[in-house]
Structure formats: structure tokens, C-alpha cells
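Cross-posting from the modeling subforum.

Setting up a comparison between two proteins and wanted a second pair of eyes on the formatting. Protein 1 (sequence, then C-alpha cells):
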Amino acid sequence: MITHAGRRRAPARGARTSGERRADRAARHAFRSRRVRIGSVAALLLTAASVIAAIDVISAMIGSSLHVIAYRALLDVRWNGWETRAISGGLVLVGLVFLLAGLLPGRSRVVPLHGGVPDVMMGVSRRGLRRAIAAAAEDATGVARVRRVRLGARRVKVVAETPVRDARGLEDGVAEAVGECLERIRPLRPRTVSVRLTHKEG
């Protein structure tokens, strides 16, 4: 089996107008991941804690505390013990996860595209972009089938099969075809193209 790798950086685009830059910022914000799942988990935990505390407070106000929270048991806890430290460390870790999830951007299912008007935001699904890249790679000379397309934040990796035993130079043609496809679609973030060709028997 003969394998080769090639890489091609997308050509630089010309100067963009202020309207196009505003359109890019609007698309980047509109298609940003909202972290719905982890936000829902945090909201459920906070809601549960609030309900428990409210039950305890309200029941104490009417003179019949339910003691949902075992305050007396907390007084007997060894706060310098390893169990307490482990629980505290776990809570701190969970808090840091939620904090980082709120601060760091997640991976959106939609890839924002360059636009010319801030009020018109365009995007393509990650699956749709991978399919377009695979179709462009399959149209390149010497490619029998595209096995996999990985779409990263800064890089596109294409793994394809070729019936040609000596495939030197073919990977550059595949990278060029993929680069032209990206230029037509115009994703907001430029990506480097990496190609690996494997020999296909028969």
C-alpha cells in the first residue's frame, strides 16, 4: 500500500469592505454554539438546589421544618477529612467545567459563510460542507473514492483511495480541487487542506 500526504493553504482573499466585515461578525455570532446541553444541566442543578432550600425555609417559617438538609449532621462532619476535601474538589471541578463552557466557544453544527450584508447571514451544515468537499475530491484526477473527510477548526483532512500505484503528485491535485471548493463556498474561517491517498487494489 502506497500512501502520500499533501497540504495546500487556501489563497488569501482581497481587502473586504466594512459592510462585509460586519456581515462576518454577525454570521459568527448568529451561528455560535449555544451550549444548550450543558446549560440545561446547570439550570436543572440550580433549580433542584433552589427548590430544596425553598422547601426547608418555607417549612421552617410555618413552624414544621422538614429538615430536607441535615444541618445537624453537617455539624458533625470532619471538615479537614479527605472525604470532605474530595467532595469539595469535585464541586470545584464541576464549577470550573460550567465556567469554561460558558466562556469558551463550542463547536456549532453550522459553519458560517462570508456575506456582504449584515442583515443576511449565511451558513452551511458541517455535514453538507463535508459532502461538498468529498464530491470535489472525488472529481479530482486519480481518485476512486473518498473514504473520510474530517472538518476541523483550522484544517480539512481528506482520506481517499486511488487505483494508481505511483500516486506522486495526485494529492496536490486533490488538495487544489478541495481548495477551489472552499473558495466557492467561502467559509468564514480559512482552513488548510491535508490529503492522504491510499492505493486501492483491483
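Protein 2 (same layout):
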Amino acid sequence: MIANEAISIAYVDTHLLRTFVAVATTGSFSAAAEQLGFTQSAVSQQIAALETDLDTPLLTRRPVALTPAGERLRRHAALLLTRLDMARADVTRAVAPPGRLIVGLTPLAWSRRVSRALATIRAGSARLSSRVLVADRERIVAAATTGEIDVALVDGFTAPSDPLPLPVAGAVGVAEDAAVVAVPGDHPLTARRTVELADLAEAYWIDAPVVSPLTSLPVDGLRAGLRYEGADVAVLLGLVRAGHGLSVLPASTAEGVALPRLVHRVELLLTPGAGEPATRLSELLAAP
């Protein structure tokens, strides 16, 4: 039902909401089923049950698209599910054994400073159980939201002084570096000191979704000549040097042609309810 132009979802099953968000995000019942590990029939049944519960159509079927009511529900559902995940993480922390530190990070968020800070924390407690998880930004942010990790360090490229466009609030900037286009040694760009990203729309790029995804850059239409799905920065640089395509990287990681309107940022997310080792690590990294 719709009252005062809003949908009442106080008693909606959260499993149905997650299925709805998956369909709304992927734009496909089959893609949502694959993402959630359900059959397509099960997804269809769950969406139908949600529409029956709310007494209003949420999606058109052919093609799959949100109705006005569905768009309203999508906005509410995303916030509610995030809050639920954060609450679950907080409760998990309350009953978790002490002395745990799990750091999740994207490949380009790792640095000597992070390594030294982690070493300082571990040296202060011989019994500390510590682990490092390396994955893409979406995976790391989700792990912080659900409490799988204690501290998240994520990186990306953005305009100078702009924060990263993260789906959750509370991130703190801990590092900022110049951005460069990494090119092969014999590339014509090596003769230049700076270049605008928009001027390279016709070049061939390496799409490295875990390390430096093309979709995160503020220019549309960049053409991928090769897709690299690993997380090893050294492998990505080797592919660039071999002439397979260009890549945007931080100046501290690779030599290249400067991008004056772009910087590389690293931001930190502390999981709600994280223990003292995680809090101490975040303090060390956030300090000037």
C-alpha cells in the first residue's frame, strides 16, 4: 500500500528486500538469481511475494524496470539493509573474542606506512590474531559493513580534494598522491610532462577491475584492449610495459605522464564496534 506517497515497509521480510535490490541493481531476474545463488523461479516468486505484501507493482517484467513505487522502495531498502548490516556487525563485535585485527584493503591502498603501522600494532601484542584481505573496493566496503573485517583501506582516483564516492559514510582520508598514466617506454606520450585524461579516449587501456578499474575514472568511453582480473600491481605494470594498454596509477607506484586534474586517494573505514587494535591502527594511519 502507498500512504502519503511513501511505502510502509516496517514488516517486510529483509530477505525479500535483498532480492528486490539485487534485481533493481542488475536489471535482470536471471542475473540477480546468479548473484544470490537462487533459481530464477525463486527470485520471481520472492518479488511477487513482496509486491503482494505491499499491494503494488514494483517492477515491470519486459523489460525489467522499476515502477515509481519500486524506485521509492529501492531508495529506502538500500539504506535499511546497510543499517541492518552495520547493526549485525556491531553485535558481532560485542561477542567476538578479543585480540583480533583483520585489515581489508584494495591493492593500491597498501603502502610502507600501512605496513609500519600494522607492524607497530602487532609488536604491542604477541597474542594478537591478525589477517590481511586484499580485494576490489566493492568487496572491501561490503566486508567492513558486515563486520567481516575491522578496518578497511580503499583507494581510487578523484578530483583534487574530492572524497571517494563510497556507498557508506564515515570514511577518513589517510593519503593523497598524484596520478599518472603509465605507458610503455616507446610510447609517444613519454615526451610529454602532462596530459588530460579526456585526450586519451582513443587510446587502448588495460581494464584492471581489482587494481585500477576504468569505470572508476571520470571519463566515459575509454576502450579496454585487455582485461586483467588479478590484484598484483607488478603484473599490471608488466602488461603496460609490454604494450598491452595504458593504466592510471599513483605516482608513488609507477612512473608516467602526470594527470593534473586527478589525484589518487586512500580512505579508511573503521567497522562499527571494532576493537582496540583496529582503533589504534586507524589512529596511526589518520595522524598527520
